[in-house]
Amino acid sequence: MTRNWLILADDLTGAADCGIAFARRGLEASVGWHGVEAPLGGAVLAVDADSRRLSPEAAAARHAALLRARHRPGQGLIKKIDSTLRGQPAAELAATIRALRNDGRPALAILAPAFPATGRTTLDGRVHLDGEALEATPLWARDHSYENAALTEILASVDLSSRLLPLGLMRQGEAALARALRDAMADGLDAVVCDAVLPGDLDVLARASLPLAGQVFWVGSGGIAAALAAAMPDGHQAPLPSPASLRGGVLVVVGSVAEASRAAAERLAAEAGAPRFEVPPAFLLAGPADPLWRPLAASITDALEAGRDTLVVIRADATADLAQGAALAEGLAGLLGPAAARMGGLFATGGETACALLSHLGVHGIRLLEEVEPGVPLGITQGAIEVPVMTKAGAFGDAGTILRSLARLRHLSTESAT
């Protein structure tokens, strides 16, 4: 049974969410990203394709190219998608299936996007968030790619054939699930869509499907990655190394507009007294030409050098164009470059934000160490600087997530120093 895995993700936080599941089970896991070819060690490689804001055609082409460049015979494969279906998961999945079959590899996709630990579930083949139909949530209203969250319909829109494995079947046990998977392969289907409401549903699916690793691959989020890692024969919880003691304040960057991240930022400022710097989108797009650019960058640097955890937030703007996310992330990376060189650690929400900032600093990867709470992995940067880094998808967590994560990081770094 394979101990080597490739995880293809559409953003950095998702890549880290999946990779950390294997690190917690004793496998060395690293995260890299599109456009950086530096070698990364470990049995598990998670690669951020940085494709969420691309067109369906461009996203598909990028995933196919990364698969050809990175996937090796004998590796397990996870195609990580956003648990709330943002980006272009259907086009990316179709491209992945075509690339595998062009290489003569069997390619039944097991689609299981649920991540119950973070409130994402699948019932009757439809995605739900905290028990509510995804289409009824503010997240869907703000950003969605499809008419609805019915997974078989989304797959059909890119000409993929699929079959629903409903919750009742999922709970009949491993033998029944294994038969259903083999039937799907025999029928020549492209994918099966798997209901899952509890973590145990994904655990049973992982145990039933892992023996078929050479004939199937998995499509989902951190939930299915955790279940697969736990289902491995030696999938025990392993002690992980701790980060070195912090050398300065932690830079907390909130580039996401999601309500959970905004609430966590407000609580950090209110309860921990973290210096708070709010930057408008227009300011970031204007860049260093703005006369306030250098003074603001200097103030952020001063706070970090003083050892203070420092919060930088992109101001919410209802008129902002979500398609400008990459440009805003690059602008923020330019603003924070001088300050980040002085930070003791980084906490970043939003994959584009974290990737742009780390790349700006000469970082080419992250070695994963620990999951400080569901959806918040901790690692050490690899490249020009080595500092602890925590990433979080924008909509994950609650108002206390950042505070708890920083407390955990300081506890670990204190342990390392003693």
UniProtKB/TrEMBL annotation:
Source domain of life: Bacteria
Species the sequence originates in: Pararoseomonas baculiformis
InterPro entries linked: 4-carb_acid_sugar_kinase_N (IPR010737), 4-carb_acid_sugar_kinase_N_sf (IPR037051), NBD_C (IPR031475), NBD_C_sf (IPR042213)
GO molecular function terms attached to this record: kinase activity
Domain Four-carbon acid sugar kinase nucleotide binding: 251-401
Domain Four-carbon acid sugar kinase N-terminal: 6-228
Protein's name according to its UniProt entry: Four-carbon acid sugar kinase family protein
Family, similarity comment: Belongs to the four-carbon acid sugar kinase family.
Keywords recorded for this protein, A-Z: ATP-binding, Carbohydrate metabolism, Kinase, Nucleotide-binding, Transferase
